[in-house]
Design brief:
Blueprint (H helix, E strand, L loop, with lengths): L2 H8 L2 H19 L6 H8 L3 H7 L3 H24 L5 H14 L3 H11 L1 H5 L2 H19 L5 H24 L3 H15 L13
Protein name: TetR/AcrR family transcriptional regulator
Organism: Actinomadura decatromicini
Keywords: DNA-binding, Transcription, Transcription regulation
Length: about 200
C-alpha cells in the first residue's frame, strides 16, 4: 500500500470531501471547468478514481456542492438580517458580513464563476437561487417599495464585492485589502435610508 493511499484512508469522510472540493475548485479556476477531468482531480489528491466517485459522481456534482454551500452562507446572512430592525448600522453590518463571507474559499468561488461563465450558465437552478437571494438581500437593505433606481444601486453595492475580487486579483492585491475596498465602495453606492422609496426619480 502506497503512503498517499494510507494518508487518504486516515481521513474521515467529511475531511476527504472537503479536500476534494478544495482541489477541484483550484483546478476549475486555473485550468477551466470544461478542461478539468475527474482523473486530474483524483491524481492531484493522490487517490483512486473509485475513491473520488464514492464522494462525487461527476464534476457537476462537485461544482453544485460548492455553490450550494455558498448559497447557504447567503441564507444565514439573510435570515439574521431579516430578524433585525432596519437601521443604518444594520445595513453596514449586512454588507460587512457579506464581504467577510467572501473571504478565502468563497473568494476563489467568485473567481471560478468569472472564469467559467458559460459553464456556470448551464447550472440554471443555481443561477435562479443566487438571483432570488440577491433580491431578498436588496429588499432587506432598502425596503420592498424602493424605486428602480435605488434597487439598482443596492444590487450594485452587493455585487461590488464580486467586482472587487476580479479587479483586485488582476492587480495582485491582498485579500484583506480587496474586501476592505469592496466594503467602502458598497457603502458609498448603497442608497441612503432618507431617500424616499418608491418615488419617481427626478
Amino acid at each position: 500500500m502506497s503512503p498517499p493511499t494510507e494518508v487518504y484512508r486516515r481521513r474521515t469522510g467529511s475531511e476527504t470531501k472537503t479536500e476534494i472540493e478544495k482541489v477541484a475548485l483550484a483546478l476549475f479556476t486555473r485550468n477551466g471547468y470544461e478542461a478539468t477531468t475527474m482523473r486530474e482531480i483524483a491524481e492531484q489528491l493522490k487517490i483512486t478514481k473509485p475513491a473520488l466517485y464514492y464522494h462525487f459522481s461527476s464534476k457537476e456534482e462537485i461544482i453544485r456542492t460548492l455553490f450550494e454551500e455558498h448559497l447557504a452562507t447567503w441564507d444565514e446572512i439573510i435570515s439574521w438580517a431579516a430578524s433585525q430592525p432596519p437601521s443604518p448600522d444594520l445595513r453596514r453590518e449586512v454588507l460587512t458580513r457579506w464581504a467577510n463571507a467572501t473571504r478565502h474559499r468563497r473568494m476563489e468561488l467568485i473567481r471560478l464563476a468569472v472564469a467559467n461563465q458559460e459553464s456556470i450558465k448551464a447550472l440554471a437552478p443555481l443561477r435562479t437561487g443566487m438571483a432570488s437571494r440577491l433580491t431578498e438581500l436588496v429588499t432587506i437593505l432598502i425596503g420592498p417599495d424602493a424605486s428602480v433606481r435605488d434597487r439598482i444601486r443596492a444590487r450594485m453595492a452587493v455585487l461590488s464585492v464580486n467586482i472587487a475580487v476580479m479587479t483586485g486579483q488582476e492587480l495582485g492585491a491582498e485579500e484583506s485589502e480587496i474586501l476592505d475596498i469592496a466594503l467602502e465602495v458598497a457603502l458609498r453606492v448603497l442608497p441612503d435610508l432618507d431617500d424616499a422609496p418608491g418615488q419617481p426619480d427626478g
